[in-house]
Backbone:
C-alpha cells in the first residue's frame, strides 16, 4: 500500500467520540474547501459503524449545505432512524462550528438474490492507453512551469478521457469518462471499498456539465459547488481494481448542472450509479 493511500484510509476512518458521534479531519492541501468526496466517505464510515454487521449500504442521498473549512474538524452525528427486517436507515449530519455543512440518508440492506439486468459498458480505451491525471499535470508544469497545480498527494490513480484542465478549453459534448482505482491494494472489507468508491465518485461529475461551455471550475465568470449527491451500490466490487466512470450531463440551466455517472468494472459489470447537481452560477458582469 502506498503512503498516500494509507494516509487517505486514516482520514476516512473517523474517530469515534461516543456511541453515535464521530470526528473527522481534513488533510492539508491548497483547496480552500473540504473535498465533497471526503465528507461523503467519512459520513458513510460513521454510519457503517452504527448498523448491524452483515447489512450493506445500497444507497446514499446527500446534500452539501455549506462549504467545509479544511482547517477545522468535522463532527458527524448518526441518527439510527430505522431498523427493519431487511432494511435499515441511518441519517448523518456533519457540523462545523455548530452549523450543519452536510447531511445524508443512507439505506442498508441484508444482501439477497434477485432479478438482474444492466446497461452495457460502451466501447472505451483501456486504462493503459489513457494518461494518468497526476502525470498529465506533471507534464503540463514542465511545458509551462507554474501554470498548473500538481496535486500534493496521489492516493487515487485517475485517468480521465477528457482532462478537467486543458491548455485550450475547447467545447465538447457533455459526455466523458474516467478510469480510476486506488494506488495500492486494500483489504477485503466491502465497507472500505464502498467508502473509497464514495470518495472517488465526487470526481469529474461537475466538470462534465462544463464541457459544452469550455469552462474550468475556477473560471472567474462562474461560481461552482456541489449541491447534492446520490449513490447506489450493486453487489461486491473492489476499489483497488480498475473502475470506469461513464459520465454524462443531460441538462444544465437555472444556474445548475445535472450529472449522471455509471461505474463499471473492467469486465463490464455495473457496480454503482451516481447522480449529482452542481451550482453553475453566472457572476454579474463588472460595471
Residues:
Amino acid at each position: 500500500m502506498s503512503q498516500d493511500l494509507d494516509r487517505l484510509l486514516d482520514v476516512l476512518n473517523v474517530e469515534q467520540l461516543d456511541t453515535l458521534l464521530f470526528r473527522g479531519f481534513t488533510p492539508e492541501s491548497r483547496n480552500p474547501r473540504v473535498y465533497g468526496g471526503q465528507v461523503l466517505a467519512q459520513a458513510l464510515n460513521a454510519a457503517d459503524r452504527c448498523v448491524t454487521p452483515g447489512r450493506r449500504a445500497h444507497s446514499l442521498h446527500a446534500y452539501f449545505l455549506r462549504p467545509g473549512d479544511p482547517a477545522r474538524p468535522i463532527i458527524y452525528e448518526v441518527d439510527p432512524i430505522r431498523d427493519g427486517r431487511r432494511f435499515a436507515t441511518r441519517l448523518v449530519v456533519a457540523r462545523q462550528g455548530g452549523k450543519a455543512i452536510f447531511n445524508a440518508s443512507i439505506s442498508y440492506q441484508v444482501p439477497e438474490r434477485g432479478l438482474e439486468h444492466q446497461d452495457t459498458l460502451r466501447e472505451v480505451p483501456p486504462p493503459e492507453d489513457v494518461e494518468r491525471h497526476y502525470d498529465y499535470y506533471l507534464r503540463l508544469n514542465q511545458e509551462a512551469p507554474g501554470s498548473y497545480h500538481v496535486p500534493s498527494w496521489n492516493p487515487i490513480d485517475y485517468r480521465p478521457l477528457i482532462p478537467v484542465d486543458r491548455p485550450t478549453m475547447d467545447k465538447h459534448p457533455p459526455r466523458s469518462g474516467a478510469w480510476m482505482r486506488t494506488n495500492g491494494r486494500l483489504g477485503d472489507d466491502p465497507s472500505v471499498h464502498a467508502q473509497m468508491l464514495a470518495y472517488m465518485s465526487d470526481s469529474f461529475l461537475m466538470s462534465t456539465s462544463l464541457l459544452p461551455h469550455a469552462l474550468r471550475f475556477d473560471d472567474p465568470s462562474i461560481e461552482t459547488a456541489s449541491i447534492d449527491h446520490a449513490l447506489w451500490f450493486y453487489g461486491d466490487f473492489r476499489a483497488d481494481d480498475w473502475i470506469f466512470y461513464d459520465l454524462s450531463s443531460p441538462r444544465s440551466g437555472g444556474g445548475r448542472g445535472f450529472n449522471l455517472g455509471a461505474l463499471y468494472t473492467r469486465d463490464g459489470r455495473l457496480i454503482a450509479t451516481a447522480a449529482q447537481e452542481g451550482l453553475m452560477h453566472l457572476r454579474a458582469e463588472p460595471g
User: Anything to note?
Assistant: The first strand starts at residue 15 and ends at 18. Residues 3-112+127-282 form a domain with the Porin fold (CATH 2.40.160.210).
